[in-house]
Write a structure and sequence with these properties.
Oligomer: single chain
Strand order of the largest sheet: 1-5-10-11-12-13
Order of helices and strands: HEHEEEHEEEEEHEHEEEHHH
Structural class: alpha/beta
Number of helices: 8
Radius of gyration: 17 Å
CATH class: Alpha Beta
Distance between the termini: 10 Å
CATH topology: Glutaconate Coenzyme A-transferase
Pfam family, one: CoA_trans
Keywords: Transferase
InterPro entries: CoA_trans_fam_I (IPR004165), NagB/RpiA_transferase-like (IPR037171)
Organism: Streptomyces globosus
Helix content: 25-40%
Strand content: 15-25%
Protein name: CoA-transferase
Number of strands: 13
Number of domains: 1
Length: 239
């Protein structure tokens, strides 16, 4: 099994038990994860083509989802998104807008987009294909997605549901007293010190860190033969 296949399964786990909600995965690995979840342990999950249709795991049309209806799902908390992060800090504050000072940034990125509303209205997770100190930073240059500390300070904690961060090195959650990031599992072949070296802040690490769960034989068959027979997943995650 490849590192990429562990990452797909780790992303799929974000939607375990989600029920009938709209999955909004951003990126190839999260998209494969959402489709795998739909075909296995989350059969009620709704998938979209990103434009105006509800689709099944193989792309067949299942319904109409106009943009206004999509916004209703967002506002009502019935979407579960897995976004990317150009930067993310220990409390889960995420940046996809710019690198450097706001008034004169070194790099212009996507922009804030819908990240603030995503992180105060419905469940959010993150996918980072290249875990490094450039991404896992002490302080993000701009807050787009809201982290645990800012949600609490702004009185938005009631609707703030920040789940897991999946990277090419492991899986991370916020199951600590101060809701700071914790190493939840390591992908096989990765060590704790490797993760610490690649993280720009002090990461909470339990005494015993499990490995990310293996894909089942059925999940591997679906992934390799149905969802991604061309093996595009291997291009996104280093070996």
């Amino acid at each position: 099994m490849s590192r990429a296949e562990y990452c797909v399964v780790a992303c799929a786990e974000e939607w375990r038990g989600a029920g009938e909600v709209l999955a909004s995965p951003m990126g190839l690995i999260p998209s494969l994860g959402a489709r795998l979840a739909r075909l296995t342990f989350s059969p009620d999950l709704l998938l979209t083509d990103g434009e105006a249709l509800l689709v099944g795991p193989d792309g067949e049309v299942e319904g109409w989802l106009p943009y206004r209806r999509h916004l209703d799902l967002v506002a009502g908390g019935r979407r579960h998104v897995m976004m990317g992060a150009s930067q993310i800090d220990r409390y889960g504050n995420q940046n996809i807008s710019c690198i450097g000072d706001w008034e004169r940034p070194d790099r212009q990125l996507l922009g804030v987009r819908g990240a603030p509303a995503n992180t105060v209205n419905h469940p959010v997770g993150y996918w980072v294909p290249r875990h490094s100190r450039r991404v896992f930073v002490e302080r993000v240059d701009m807050v787009c997605g809201v982290g645990h500390d800012r949600a609490a300070a702004g009185g938005a904690g009631r609707f703030h549901r920040l789940g897991r961060v999946v990277s090419d090195l492991g899986v991370f959650d916020f199951a600590t007293p101060d809701r700071s990031m914790r190493l939840a599992s390591l992908h096989p072949g990765v060590g704790v010190e490797e993760v610490r070296e690649a993280t720009g802040f002090a990461l909470a690490v339990p005494e015993e860190v499990p490995y990310t769960r293996e894909p089942t034989a059925g999940e591997l068959r679906l992934l390799r033969e149905v969802l991604d027979p061309a093996g595009l997943r291997e291009r996104e995650v280093r070996g």
